[in-house]
Design a protein that fits this description.
Blueprint: H1 4-11, H2 15-22, H3 32-44, E1 60-65, H4 69-72, H5 76-91, E2 95-100, H6 106-110, E3 115-119, H7 124-133, E4 137-140, E5 150-154, H8 156-169, E6 175-180, E7 183-184, E8 188-189, H9 193-204, E9 213-216, H10 220-231, E10 239-242, H11 245-257, E11 267-272, E12 285-288, H12 291-307, E13 315-318, E14 321-323
Length: 334
């Protein structure tokens, strides 16, 4: 019997891509010829979909995404995490029920799932709703203080400290922070651990930071707007730590328009290590946040907890590492 892996091998694409094409995933962004090739290959190999996994009582995993489908397409970090989850599900023949938080009946769609992964940021009332639906639950990219809930996040504290240490040892003392404000629920402001660690680090070093702190939204345009403010300031920082690569890329454009050279006039560090960061000019020094692996780990945790009847929750952090490229240099007083 032809499998998705057989189609993927012959069509030269990933099994996840084949699955999403065959299931007509509206959020999938592939070339028309790729989709046509996959469908043609499936037909040539006489592929037929298996009957619903529910009839076989296989493991059913619910995945809640905090972004809308449109917003998620703009955020490679969460796309990578989702792909990690999907690839794990394919490898283990797990039925995946994917919902977006802005779906009108998303909670009803999750009822009956053997486990739920919540990817992103959620209000406390939403957390309570998920717990009521399923006891086998994992939160990814959000630490949940509830004693009986498993959560898996990036080690933001050490990641920020590594980036700031790097800039500090290059001689920078006027180090700025570029971040974004995020809200959940009834306009509940989320605290960014990267911002908290930045402030803690600057206080430890007895360095000024209030006038070098810039906050907008986590997108490229916001980074561009903040970059313009920095470029026109009477006294700008000599280095910037941006809480996402998208912010850093926007700032790069603003600096270039203002004839401010990176890294000669200002050093710049991003966060996430998106694919684009390697191809900016100059190539962006950034923190690698392994979102795909986080998705794989999260799916594995919830699957193992079910198979092994694990009841003890886990609070874990994934280490991040600094990728040094070309956007930073040693600072010397001019």
């Amino acid at each position: 019997m032809t499998t998705i892996k057989d189609i993927a091998r012959q069509a030269n694409v990933s099994p996840a891509t084949v699955s999403r094409i065959l299931n007509d995933d509206p959020t999938l962004n592939v070339l028309p010829e790729t989709k046509e090739r996959v469908l043609r290959t499936a037909k040539e190999l006489h592929y037929t979909k298996k009957k619903s996994a529910r009839l076989k009582k296989s493991f059913q995993l619910g995945l809640v995404l905090w972004f809308s489908a449109e917003d998620e397409m703009k955020d490679s970090y969460y796309l990578s995490a989702r792909k990690g989850i999907e690839d794990f599900c394919i490898s283990q023949s797990i039925e995946l029920v994917r919902v977006f938080r802005n779906d009108s009946n998303y909670l009803d769609m999750l009822r009956g799932c053997d486990g739920i992964i919540c990817l992103g940021k959620f209000a406390q009332e939403e957390v309570k709703s998920f717990i009521e639906i399923c006891s086998n639950i994992v939160f990814l990219d959000m630490r949940v203080e509830h004693y009986n809930i498993t959560s898996l996040t990036m080690d933001f504290k050490q990641a920020v400290r590594d980036a700031l240490d790097y800039l500090y040892h290059l001689g920078h003392r006027k180090i700025g922070f570029m971040g974004g404000k995020e809200y959940v629920g009834n306009h509940e402001l989320l605290v960014d651990p990267r911002l908290e660690e930045y402030i803690a680090y600057m206080k430890e070093k007895n360095l000024p930071y209030e006038k070098y702190l810039y906050e907008g939204s986590f997108n490229t345009f916001s980074g561009y707007e903040m970059g313009k403010v920095i470029a026109t300031s009477e006294e700008h920082p000599t280095a910037i730590f941006a809480a996402s690569d998208a912010l850093a890329v926007g700032a790069l454009k603003a600096f270039k328009e203002a004839d401010m050279e990176v890294p000669e006039d200002i050093s710049l560090v991003g966060f996430n290590n998106t694919e684009l960061s390697e191809y900016t000019v100059p190539a962006l020094t950034t923190v690698n946040a392994p979102a795909y692996d986080m998705g794989q780990h999260g799916a594995n945790l919830i699957y193992a907890a079910s198979n092994l009847s694990i009841r003890t929750p886990l609070k874990a952090e994934i280490p991040c590492n600094l990728i040094v490229r070309e956007s930073c240099m040693e600072y010397t007083e001019k």
